[in-house]
Amino acid sequence: MTDSPLQFELHTTDGRARRGKVTVPHGSFNTPAFMPVGTRATVKGLMPRDLRETGSEICLSNTYHLNISPGPKIVKKMGGLHHFMGWDAPILTDSGGYQVFSLPKAKLDEEGVTFKFEQKGGKKITLTPEKSMQIQEDLGADIIMAFDVCVPHPCEYQDAREAVYRTIRWLERCKEAHSRKDQALFGIIQGSTYADLRALSTQLTREIDLPGYAIGGLSVGEGHELMMSSIDQTEPGMIKEKPRYLMGVGYPEDIVEAVARGIDMFDCVIPSRYARSGVAFTRRGRFRVTNARYRSDKFPLDTNCNCYCCRNFSRAYLNHLINTNEILGSALMTLHNVTFYQDMMRAIRMAIEEGSFEKFRQAFLDEYLSDDKKEELGFDDLDGRYDQEDFGWDVKHSVVPPTDIAENLEKTEPVDEVAGPRRRIEKIKNLGDD
Fold first, then answer.
1. Could you say which residues bind Zn(2+) here (predicted)?
2. Cβ of 254: how many Cβ atoms within 10 Å?
3. Active-site positions?
4. Does domain 274-419 have CATH number 3.10.20.90?
5. Is 190 marked as a binding-site residue?
6. Average pLDDT of the chain to the nearest whole number
7. Do domains 7-271 and 274-419 have the same CATH topology?
8. 116 falls in which pLDDT band (50, 70, 90)?
9. pTM for the complete prediction?
10. What is the pLDDT of residues 123-169, one digit of tens each?
């Protein structure tokens, strides 16, 4: 380590896709990386050793929620977030800005955001850039996020423009207030879906020297096409030698497409939140195990998965657990989903290393998305088929015979069957809870 709290090694590129490694005081993680969200210092249903077993090398916690309980001073007194939650690997904390801006009666001015802390008797609190930095310093994560202005979608141009400039002013205040030398502060690029504002925000943000930068303000209902065009408008102006973090984006197809556009880091509540409602992610799409057709299904969630859940339990058992609200059901489903995401990220990294990412991208999307979804998202020209051995999805760990796998392939429902029309996770509903 040098004097910087974060080191980024860019190992190789394949097109715009990047393969690298980030090193911080509590360890390293490979990129592209997916960070499971542990809102309240835990990924719901998983012990730290479970999270490690999924292949996760870094996780995220939420400043807003930890400020409510147990409070940053208690976390600091207990030795910091790593010691408090028993996680000896890298941690990133967000600034709390998104959650605060999601509150119905939040008041914004140049000083910060004032809102009622309903959990503390309706007491009025103002969260400022300086306060966000102090909370995050007390929590002690390796990577902390600047306090930014989050605008909804759709958003008027003038509002988005003002948010860009205020976010920059707040970023300067964050940098001035940030005093811990063992934490890496990331700035956040805003601009809604306006191309000129994205370019402006990128330029202004990169002028403030920081260890890394994030793209914010996406995955708020703009849809896949606008999300990708916004990344295309932002990424070319980002510094090549520093990590790039796309905040809150977590559908597999969005991650793969964002990697193709040069993004290094991702986080989202999707794998854990979907797990609790019985939705499993697999290489062939996602499906809801609570459906009646799985009541007597002997197969694991995913015949190509080597997680503890898939090695030991059937869809029938998981159908029973989730439908009877047993805690174990949510835990096993979460373990599987997070493992799927980490397996996907490992396969992505391998493809970039081998110079075959474009082949991987087309094959993965062709296998993962239904025909209707391909057409909806503009992927209807895919013609590749997935070669399991090419990209680390080898079936050698399967817990059932190959003949049974072949017979069972058609049992997996298409992605469309899970949740109807495509929509973004309603983050406001639970203020970003995982």
1. 305, 307, 310, 336
2. 23
3. 94, 267
4. no
5. yes
6. 89
7. yes
8. confident
9. 0.89
10. 888 999 999 999 999 999 999 999 999 999 999 999 999 999 999 99
